[in-house]
Amino acid sequence: MKAGIDIIPSRPRKRRHPVLLSAFMIWALLFTAGYWLAEPFKADASQEAVGIHKVQGASWKPELGQPLFIAVLGSDARKGPIDGGGGRCDSIHIVAINPQQKAGTILNFPRDSWVDIPGHGTSKINSACSSGGAPLMVRTLKNLTGIPIQYYAITEFSHFMDMVNELGGVDVVIPYAMNDTPSAAVFPAGPRHLSGGEALAFSRNRKDTPRGDFSRTENQGTLLIASLAKFKAETADPHRMFDFINIGRRHAAIDIPLPELIKLGLLAREIDPANVLNYGIPGSTGSAGGASVVHLSPGDAYTRVADDAIY
User: pTM for this structure?
Assistant: First the structure.
């Protein structure tokens, strides 16, 4: 199934269980974290590149065929702690992982989606992060979709770029020519090796895309899939695996129990990027609260993703 194609066919289909991805190089961090058996890992908060956290009260039991759901978030904070600073989340995704089918779906949400934010009324979805951090964004997504998110990952501009650079960049197929000065996304269409700054520019561009923020969030999903492909291609070399481990130890703030990290890592290594569907939640632009917003029209996409992942 190709990325971006409707995940809700009208004809009968073989039951497929969706899979989710995370922010840039989360796959690498989840996998390599499973090898940190010698000593507990504590990161200096000022050096965090990605925060990987367990949702309070959530559980994941792959041995019982239970699916995995991760909220993948990118803050617009320019520099500072991952989980603080009052930044808005302009990159919002739910990644669903099936431990048996090794295939899945990335659900992409435009940042201006007009939704209910628990305790804060109706507003743009990206304000959930500035109002209550990643935990409030997770609550918002769970209430909106009914999907039982078990983990979340969040990063911000400066740490994102540093991590991409330390890992040697990422190969992405640019879907169309871009010439957007505000985001610095100036690329011809076609394959390109992106540095940290270029990867950030590619994922931020919304003014020079066919469908504005709808296209931007799908491009972010494309970057996630490209990151998974890089991880799978490079970690066959044991020496490169240790590079990922060392970079992860410098940059990741993790509060997931070690046994769960091992399960996550082993699963990440088995996911084929070709089996990951990149799906942008459809909707229409309008106005509300005196601002330009997006009114989502998910149909039964949320239910499909949640139910299809249950054995």
Answer: 0.83
Mark out the alpha helices in 69-171 (DSSP H runs). 127-145, 157-166
86 vs 255 pLDDT, higher one: 255
Residue 291 lies in a domain: yes
CA distance between the termini of the chain = 21
186 domain-assigned: yes
For the chain, how many helices (H) and strands (E)? Answer: 8, 15
**What one-letter code names the amino acid at 165?**
N
Cα–Cα distance for residue pair 103/27, rounded to 1 Å: 14
The answer to whether 227 and 155 have CB atoms below 8 angstroms apart is: no
Quick one: pLDDT at residue 181? 93
Contacts of 301 (CB under 8 A, 6+ apart): 7, 8, 107, 279, 281
With the C-alpha atoms ordered 75, 50, 70, 198, is the resulting torsion angle positive or negative? positive
- DSSP structural state of residue 58: -
Q: What whole-number distance in Å separates Cα of residue 92 and Cα of residue 76?
A: 11
Specify the 3-state DSSP secondary structure of 207: coil
Q: Which run of H or of E encompasses 261?
A: helix 258-270
Instruction: Quickly tell me which residue has 């908060």 as its tokens.
Output: 45
- Residue-wise pLDDT for 35-88, tens only, equals 333 333 344 444 456 788 899 888 888 777 788 899 999 887 666 555 545 688
- Residue 21: inside a domain, yes or no? no
